[in-house]
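User: Can you predict the 3D structure of Adenine/guanine permease AZG2? Sequence below.
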Amino acid sequence: MEKGLNDAVSKTKVGKYFKLDARKSTFTKELRAGTATFLTMAYIITVNATILADSGGTCSVADCSAPVNQTAGPDCMLKPNEGYQSCLDKTKSDLIVATVLSAMIGSFAMGILANLPFGLAPGMGPNAFVAYNMVGFHGSGPISYKTAMAIVLVEGCAFFIVSALGLREKFARIIPKPIRLACAAGIGLFIAFVGLQIHQGVGLVGPDQSTLVTVTACSSTNPVTGECISGKMRSPTFWLGSVGLLITCYGLMKEIKGSMIYGILFVTLTSWIRGTAVTYFPQTLLGDNNYKYFKKVVDFHKIQSTAGAISFTSFNTSGAWLAFLTLFYVDMLGTTGILYTMAEIGGFVNEKGSFEGQYMAFLVDAGSTIVGSTLGVTTTATYVESSAGIREGGRTGLTAVTVGFYFLVSLFFTPLLTSVPPWAIGPSLVMVGVMMMKVVKDIDWENIKEAVPAFITMLLMPLTYSIANGIVGGIGMYIALSLYDYIVRLMAWLIKMRGMVLKERNQVSATAGADLAIEVI
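Assistant: Sure. Here are the predicted structure tokens for Adenine/guanine permease AZG2:
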């Protein structure tokens, strides 16, 4: 039956359009590949929404609840506040739908237009940069959420133009190789650090007045600062999250598809049980409201606040332009590198270093970012997890179309997706960091000129809580260490030019002397 189905589909217009026979693939193999890819990247639905919701989105002081005849102060966004939390919950629901839509549109476009088996979704790294560096936790940063989305939109347009002109690969090569490699590792460390914190992850790491950071995982913490009050390493949610991390690790060790999802599922399902120490629905007004929405199970949520949340009012500032350049180069390096890597794994790259559908793949990659920014999410890019589908035999765009279909189905399960707790997401952030550290093996650690800038880049990103600081610091150190070589080359060039000038002058003098002698004779 399977063989008959595959033969029938391969002879149809769909089979011929996706070149099933030409790429030695089958319909059922593409479906299995798409399923594997979706299972390995589905974690981004809740992870991306959680990270971007930490910025506060479009929520402001006006959403805070205040006592009768009093006005809420700006600090209400940083302290527990029912009104502001309610706004955050709605924003997270918006961001989940925006994440799913951008991933669905991007994956469909990659499959239909480029005919490549790559899944797309909002990328890890740019989302953390926007949430924690640009907008800041609950809007405490220098740039508003609407301005940040305007920056992402402009960056996507610039990205599209560069891709259309065929300059994308050349731009990516401007950054020194050790900095490019260190960027991926540094962003991985940054994301893992976020996953270890109390508000965004498992809560292992918290603030300390003496040492800045310390081990917490406390049973009782300060809701404002996150400092430990009592019961260090006795947090039930931390230990539950640790079990989820172990499940993910064991799954990856055995190369089980969807291991990231299984870890998240275990922790989430356990946290949905009310009346336990790890429940996500405590017996409070907010917990009751969340549980009431959760019980709907199936519900189509309409985006209310993040779609079209774009403002150019404060765009023309030095901070905005620096953020634009940082996003542009991070995306240029990351998305271009991932696309080539996936094409290499799939065996699509030819002797000239290009692959079939490359131009259209670049345009889809960039165009998806433009679509995502109008919905309220950050850069949409090809996912490394696409390699799972390629390993399952995915060779055509049908794999990507299958991924897009799965994202379409997930649109109708918003109540479940919004109820995933941070201690379920934290372990997956740590694992993303682990996977992004692979590139450090390609850095020449014996060469100080490469090792020091790379190390500075990786070190500054988590320690300064800024991806931009890491990139600027690494490039600055690379230029500083390269000054000696530049000066030596300049001196050598000046000496060479001086020699050429003297030689030319001597030749001119000799010629003039000969002419004079002839005239005398």
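The chain has a mean pLDDT of 85. The CA atoms of residues 264 and 424 lie 5 Å apart.
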